[in-house]
Amino acid sequence: MIEWIRIKNLALIEEAEIEFKSGFNVITGETGAGKTILIGAIGMLLGERADKASIRTGCSSCEISMSFALPSSVSKSVSEILDTAGLPPVEDKQVQIRRIITATSSRNFINDSPAALQTLRNLGNILIDTHGPHEHQSLLRQSVQLELLDRYGSLEKLTSEASGIYEELKKSRIEREELEKGIPSSSEAEHFRFIVSDIAKAGVNADEEEELITRHRLASNSHDVLETAKNAAGMLKESEGSLTDRISEIYRVIQGFEGADPEMAAKFLKQCESLTETANELADGIQRYTGNIELDEKEFTELEERLRIIQNLKRRYGPTLADVVNTAENARRRLDEFENFESIRSGFIGKEKSLNDKLLKKCSEISKKRRELSAKFAKKVCGELRKLGFARSDFTVDFKQTEPGPSGFDVVDFIFSPNPGETAKPLREIASSGEISRVMLALKTVLSAADSIPVLVFDEIDVNIGGETAMIVGQELKALGNSHQVLCISHLPQVAACADTHYSVEKSVVKGRTFTAINELKNADRKSEIARMLGGGKAAEKHAEEMLE
After folding, report:
1. In what order do the strands lie in the sheet with 128-131?
2. What pLDDT does residue 420 have?
3. Where are the domains of the chain?
4. Does 2-139+450-548 carry CATH code 3.30.565.10?
């Protein structure tokens, strides 16, 4: 059950904490006071979309939180949800959910651990069943009626299995249709065959280029150094017109004036000899250096050729080598589709036949169970309807069959006759909004006995009813409170008087700002609120007192 809800800066509520009790809790108040804010807060705590417009004017964020005491009937399911989400296990059978909402984001927590919004929704599906005004119309839809029947019979596992088979069948059909539509022409097949051959000849793989570039860079550096050093050594003494050759020429020229000035000539000649010796030593040192450089010319040539091939392939099928490999794989697959079209298509057809047979078998199993439980379901609903003022009404479930789908091949209609002598017709054709409210309450009552959801929330379930019927609805809600915690927003004093715990929502204006407060009513305060709902005055006060006795 919900132990408490805390609200801060949500719409008209600046700050509030409401402690709920077990049994039937009713919430009343003037129209526009903010009763639905509380229901909206519960919805947001269980994963509904949070709108920035819900933040109180002048505030940057709002915060809502709730503490939930887990009954043993849902403890295992809650633990599985938290475990799947990677969240810590439950301690002391208590779950606390908190949301902080800003204009741009929402942060969610379960027992103070950050949680995804989907995890909140998953918890909500097993903790709280909410009925709002919009569900009156949803009850008229055949798909919703089928869901209610399945929920009563606990057929969710079977329908989930049918849905899985259906989705697999649907996927196979789509893949086969795409194959049939996309089968290559003969000319396209030839093109794919060329691509496969062209890339296969190179024998490339997506990961080799990086290693080749690294090896080529190292080899290229060695090659460049070796070539440069060889050129330098040749310029010194080996190539034609080398430095040593030029020094020799200078030596001979100087010898030409040796007779005229032997002293200077001797000096210059000695310097030439020194230069020649230095040039020879430098050339020898460079040659020794180049001798130590390891270079496999064949490997270098092969690396350059391999990179050239890869570059050409990238230019044709790239831009990356991974794209080239993917192009080859896609071309090979498309070529395989062309060459083995009938075989692949036959495989799909065989798979679809097997899945269709499997789906039909599962749908038949589900349909049989639905038909078996529908009579019991209808009998229980009729019993609840009698309690709600339809003393001689009739309620049955009608079945029709359609194409197999994710929930089976049944289409159901809830057939309803509110009064004897009236032709029974589908609910959507005859029910007034007041009748729909009571039918929905009857269904909720029957379902609540069949499932383990511990909390039922009703937002104006009593719309468009009054008088004795309203009193009956209140009594039925109180009876529901014996097995579930019930929260109900109501405008009817007859319903409010039946509640175990009564809360009032009041709106006030202080210094130009609107505030909403939520308070538990007891004794005189409760009598005054019910008197207000009756219209006020002495007579209303007396009537309120009688209703509460």
Report:
1. 128-131, 455-459, 485-489, 24-29, 501-510, 513-521
2. 80
3. 2-139+450-548, 200-337
4. no
CA–CA gap between residue 283 and residue 134 (Å, rounded):
98
> Exposed (0-12), middle (13-18) or buried (19+): which is 503, by Cβ within 10 Å?
buried
Integer Cα distance of 84 and 119 in angstroms: 9
Integer Rg of the chain from CA = 44
Q: Would the CA dihedral through 53, 57, 60, 61 be positive or negative?
A: negative
- SS3 state at 239: coil
Structural contact between residues 414 and 370, judged by C-beta atoms closer than 8 angstroms: no
Question: CB neighbours of 259 closer than 8 A, spacing ≥ 6?
Answer: none
Tokens 């080749």 found at:
212
Of 78, 80, 83, the C-alpha closest to 93 is 78
The predicted model scores a pTM of 0.63
Beta strands 106-110 and 94-102 are: antiparallel
Q: What order do you get walking across the sheet with 113-114 strand by strand? A: 13-19, 2-10, 61-69, 94-102, 106-110, 113-114
* pLDDT computed for residue 133 by the predictor: 63
pLDDT along the chain (549 residues), means of 10: 93 89 92 80 89 87 94 88 92 91 91 94 88 67 89 92 96 90 78 86 82 73 74 81 85 85 87 88 81 67 85 87 88 82 87 96 97 95 87 91 94 89 81 73 82 82 76 88 91 92 88 84 92 89 88
